Amino acid sequence: MSQLWDAETARRYDTPGVGMFAPELLRTTADRLAALADGGRALELAIGTGRVAVPLAERGVPVVGVELSPHMVDQLRTKVDEATIPVVLGDMSSATAPGRFSLVYLVFNTIGNLLTQEDQVACFRNAARHLLPGGAFVIELGVPDLRRLPPGVQATVWLDEPGYLALDTYDVLNQQLVSHHFRFGDGTEARLGRTPQRYVWPAELDLMAQLAGFELESRDADWDGAPFTAESRSHVSVYRLPG
Ligand SMILES: C[S@@+](CC[C@H](N)C(=O)[O-])C[C@H]1O[C@@H](n2cnc3c(N)ncnc32)[C@H](O)[C@@H]1O
């Protein structure tokens, strides 16, 4: 998986001010996480280039990261040094960061990057292992788009912009999808990025959390706390360990 997040991908990852880097999204995300950290330390699993960790640290929350790709960490280091946001290079289902935390979080659909149920359960257990009693584990994850797949259709186009097409192909037997991102200009050449994922229903996520000793505290449709409904495309779920 780490070769997916290579130097070129890492260099292009940040889109300052737009998409997942929109200031309003980052503000509500960091505000909610800072409140959940409740004066304690936070651990981001798969910290990437620090999209969320940097604004969270700017709110005075001590943040530590775990990350598989050294290239993503190189980009993070263009923003903050090791003393400000230390990072452990390793797999989020098994790596250990020193100390205990009041908050562990894993955002932007990234639990799906673990391609087996076993690894996803291990990730929940790893989050629990890093938390203080009463600590919270926050997951942001898309709801699988299977309602858009009529019989015989195995792909959904979910983004169609000038110069950018994105589609997911599904293997529903094995609960896997591959996100394909095609970026192109006026010519005939396109750049293709592909990310395999194991998609997860909220109910399965809750069961994994239960196996690791968590209880579901809340599930919202976004970082602002909009109600999660049958039409929600994504969710922010807060799991908590007993105090
Ligand atoms: C979609 S990016 C999210 C980065 C960051 N959390 C954010 O919100 O912008 C996914 C990140 O997960 C990392 N990653 C993928 N599999 C991982 C694993 N098993 N352990 C740790 N990091 C992983 C990738 O290297 C990449 O930085």
From TrEMBL:
Q: Name one Pfam family in it.
A: Methyltransf_25
SUPFAM superfamilies annotated for this entry?
S-adenosyl-L-methionine-dependent methyltransferases
Q: Name one GO molecular function term.
A: methyltransferase activity
InterPro entries tied to this protein: Methyltransf_25 (IPR041698), SAM-dependent_MTases_sf (IPR029063)
Methyltransferase domain location is: 43-135
**Example GO biological process:** methylation
Sorted alphabetically, the keyword list is:
Methyltransferase, Transferase
Q: What is this protein called?
A: Class I SAM-dependent methyltransferase
Instruction: Give the originating organism.
Output: Cellulomonas fengjieae
